Amino acid sequence: MSEHSMSRRALLAGAATIPMAAGLGFTKANAAGHAQGPQIPRVNRFGVGDFEVTTMLVGSRTVEEPQTIFGMNVGADEFAAVSAEARIPVDKAQFFFTPTLVNTGAELILFDTGLDGAATTQAVEMAGYSADAVTHVVLTHMHGDHIGGLMTNGAETFANAAYITGQAEFDHWSGTDNEGFANNVKPLAEKMSFLGDGDSVTSGISAKAAFGHTPGHMTYMLDSNDQQLLILADLANHYVWSLAHPDWEVRFDMDKAAAAASRRSVLGMLAADSVPFIGYHMPFPGVGYVETRGDGFHYVPHSYQLLL
After folding, report:
1. Which CATH number is 8-12+40-307 given?
2. What is the pTM (predicted TM-score) of this model?
3. 3-class state of residue 154 by DSSP
């Protein structure tokens, strides 16, 4: 790994600095001062059966030298060729951070909390809710960009919520001196309930083990009125350099072999069953499908399939 590669802490801290009020755009004023620059939508809503699902972009960041993060076990020529075929630059990547709200009609469930409580609260409000309306917070795993929004200025961001996470994930991090866990998760431990593979969050939402990215990383299947959608979390962190090539190593995967095996298993299921998914780091709005291609997979972005 290059000594100049960016640490996970620096990457995530940088993402948190993107101002939400600026609309997550990358403003570049021209000489006349009129250019607004590109702008990314921040809220996207659709239905899954009787559930209403909202993805929310709470941060975005451009990162240089992406092969210090993705495809660490392949040569530079192969990485460049794959990137060129996908028409994406080889020298930089765009990261997206996308918590999801699920309104079941009886509960308002937030999956992951972003990096910063204020930014996530603002996104929740843009989606038409308040932080106090969230009834459950589900943590897919405990990396900083998923737990950083649990607390705001030392207080609970989602004060009326119950907290749910995987037992294996909690047990792992509770045995470490991880600062993010100590500051954000541990203060809420007495309010948390824990689940394992196949357990239910509520009717129609079940946990699916997908270990490797972290020791207890979970995905969550929504199933309502004969429609399904999988909240993929960080199973695949890039639509080309991870999803399309599941055996490519990702720096943030704690057990790289297990993560690759989980990708092949889960993505194979999604492709075979034509089940859509939400990827936390996929290009916003983060919703798409998987199809098999060669020895790997191909990402098909959602267009209007879930709006009909």
Report:
1. 3.60.15.10
2. 0.89
3. coil
